[in-house]
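Comment on both lines for my students:
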Amino acid sequence: MKPQVSIIMGSMSDMPVMEEAARFLDQMEIPFEMNALSAHRTPDKVAEYAKSASQRGVKVIIAGAGGAAHLPGVVAAYAQIPVIGVPVKSSQSLSGLDSILSILQMPSGIPVATMALDGARNAAIFAARILSLSDKDLALKMRAFHETLGRKVEEANEKIKDIQYRFKIQDH
């Protein structure tokens, strides 16, 4: 079995965020690989990795990085497949703003789909949506997943109806 998605991060400090992507891919039964690579500390390995990703069967890359978050952009410069960037709020970051801007502000021709700060789960959901375009079984799983989100909102509304306040009006 070949990985369809690759999750990469700048260092192990990004793991608590990036493992959310791994959990979702596991839940959807999507084969993936996971590695630590640094755009600054191991640039040659990043280039080699990105150039060879599609040959390994990878169809989408999820790249998370904090601080001066260049990993997703460097990977996108070398890979010819979609790259989803996850800005990670790190201990040395400016509340994550530096990571967001480093990933978001890519030059024309080198796109990176940028998720919210620490948004690895959404990155995995987005990757699954991309893959579901050519995989009917995965499309069915994603539809079922989406339906569970709607049910959670309906359940929340039922609970809210039971909460009483003096001036609360529940008209629908």
The longest strand covers residues 60-66. The chain has one domain: 5-135. Strands lie at 5-9, 32-36, 60-66, 83-88, 113-114. The longest helix spans residues 136-161.
